[in-house]
Here is the input.
Amino acid sequence: MGLFKLLCSSKVSLSTRFWVLLRGCLITSIWLSGIVLFYKTSNITLYDTIYKYDVTAGVGSFNASLVQPFINYLQGLSPNYPYTVLPYTQYAAAYTLVLNPLIATVSEPVACISDAPGDCMSYLFSGGLEMVTPWIPKQDTDYPMVKIDNVQAVQMDFSGSTSIDTRLSLCNGTTGGICGSYGMQYNITSRVSFFSRQATLTTARSNYSILSVVDTSAPEPIIDVDVTAYRAALGWLLNYTSADIPGPSSIAQSFWSSNLRMQDPSTYGIIVQNFQSVLAFPFWLFNDNNWGNTALKSNQTVAGLPQQFYTQASIVAPYQAIEFNQGMFIVFVVLQGLGILFAWGTLFWVWICSRVQPETSGFLLFEAKYRNKRWLKL
Here is the structure.
């Protein structure tokens, strides 16, 4: 208010008004710089690394050459067993693969031919910490996360443009191996596209969940899928009679008992995700970095895998930081620089130009009070 009164006063000289205006601009720029600095800021997460080591990680493309050797290996464990060997570990995982936060995350579709809500669904299968070898070290428990760089991943788009049509037909009963229905038969049909990508993952050491996926590379279409071997892998999984598994204990049971849910849009998506998990199963199990590859060893990296599976994992702890906008920071520096330049320029000008000592009397206190009253009157 004092500066404003001086500017409006008719008793103040033009040079004094200029200096008052300059001072006001200086104060404004200093205050404004503080506001500008925190404009468009964002919170970012930084990671403190305590330990880094070499690992194999990720999910690769479906390798058709692994299917039959793996099945033969399982049968060789029990040569006299008359049925197909279907390990529970793989069997139980197949039903909810796309819902499993340890190995998959929801992703933006790469290609989609439908604008209907919920008709385009996409998942990035990276394997997370579960498919990292060797296992994470036990020390440094104060660092609760593991960061895995450049992890090989497969993205699956359902209802994509360049795709393979897949369908699961539900049969209510069979007679002599031929489907015989006593009611309406339902089926799920989907179109799926496969893409190869890489991404950096942050996972929790406590429960292996994938916490974040960043630095995702551009998708590369996977077009060389061996459909015959892909069908063979699904047939091995779904043929519960060959494995001597009771129908109610099989994967197909959930689809048999879900006729009403398949007709209702509010619950149809649950069955669809189960179906999508089944379709993802061959890519999950029969890729070079999972147990479908019989050359792998427990808690030990092996040579001979494709190069994209070799990467590094880091034991990290997260910290929150503020990221300043680059443009706003430049404006802040300029405004602060103007204030500093003005302050030093004023001191330099006073040192150069003000050589005459002010006249004072012997009564300094009286003189200061008198001049102060005179200044207030002005």
